Structure prediction request, 159 residues.
Amino acid sequence: MNATTQEQIARALGRIASGCFILTARAGTKRTGMLASWVQQAGFEPPAVSVAVRKGRAIESLIDESKHFALNILGEDPVAMFKHFGRGFTLDEDAFAGLDAKDCAGGIVIANRIGRLSCRVTGKHDAGDHWLYVGEVIDAEGDDAQRPYVHLRRNGMNY
Prediction:
């Protein structure tokens, strides 16, 4: 693939709008969360979503063990959550230190969200450098009064 084609692919991929979410999971006494932007509704009946997780992220082992995850949907002002979750966490670190967070079906729910989807994993697919998890929504809550955060990337070949 020549450089011009690669640049055009990067530019076009960057035009795909996405939101920002805090993906959480727990298994046994371990729990963690991470920023996720590659999330999409994947079905109506049953209701389902897909979420991409870079291979090797700490959350991968918890999702694989528990077969569940939760997505916290961020509102229009996600800066505090970007700062908190942006650096990533190991399983030995408390990803929720200093946050108002509690267990929910599928993972952890945080106070600074406009919605939450709890999901049961129905598939895990190899997508190169990421795993694509598909989850059936088993529980949810939402706030129609607030708008979700939406962004576009300049370059679709990196975060």
Q: What stands out?
A: The chain has a mean pLDDT of 94.
